[in-house]
Amino acid sequence: xxxxxxxxxxxxxxxxxxxxxxxxxxxxxxxxxxxxxxxxxxxxxxxxxxxxxxxxxxxxxxxxxxxxxxxxxxxxxxxxxxxxxxxxxxxxxxxxxxxxxxxxxxxxxxxxxxxxxxxxxxxxxxxxxxxxxxxxxxxxxxxxxxxxxxxxxxxxxxxxxxxxxxxxxxxxxxxxxxxxxxxxxxxxxxxxxxxxxxxxxxxxxxxxxxxxxxxxxxxxxxxxxxxxxxxxxxxxxxxxxxxxxxxxxxxxxxxxxxxxxxxxxxxxxxxxxxxxxxxxx
Length: 281
Known about the structure:
There is one protein chain. The protein is mainly α. The chain has helices spanning 2-20, 23-47, 54-70, 75-93, 96-124, 129-154, 169-196, 209-237, 252-256, 259-275; strands at 158-160, 164-168. It has 2 domains: 1-125, no CATH class; 127-281, no CATH class. α4 runs antiparallel to α5. The protein is globular.
């Protein structure tokens, strides 16, 4: 019950923010989530004997989001700057054997957590941004739920025993099917709303339905891969959950691991669309 109630509250907050919030509000929430996830990621590095300084983790997330919001063209420069700062701090304050690993872990934290979450307001700011962001969330959420419950009930064949012993092929197939069904449901719902009220176009998409079907498959595959990547981090660090802040769900990283890979994949597809002038998604 805790898991269901927590999920309902989180989903309601996110939907309200997407529909009624300002862009800076979405950015602020994404930054807060990234900060919480960064503290959990730090636990992994601590278990590995090379903890990233907490002050640097939080400052790095804040600086990256400020750069992404005010000067998006300078985000790469910010990543380089933050990495060099951590490199210098590690060299001066830790044992020489840890300098490389601590610096590398810090760079991974920025690329793995801050960068994907900073893309969410960027996606929302696109043409058809509301529909795209909801489509992304819906593919991730529905796939995650289907994999959990179908896999737990009917799963027999292990998907990746080394990384995640509980995941099964049955759950993975159910996850893919759920993403396609609910993703296409959103597309059809957007078309229906537009037909009923021509002034309501926030859920309307201009591309053919089969493009979104393919997109749902790609995003689901990325989401499932993201789940496996976080499992690899946890197993490598010897921890079961990234945290316990979310009742019934574990940590923040446990809830956003799929999104951390799916969001950059969607952004890459948007970038390809814009580069080759393929229209809107």
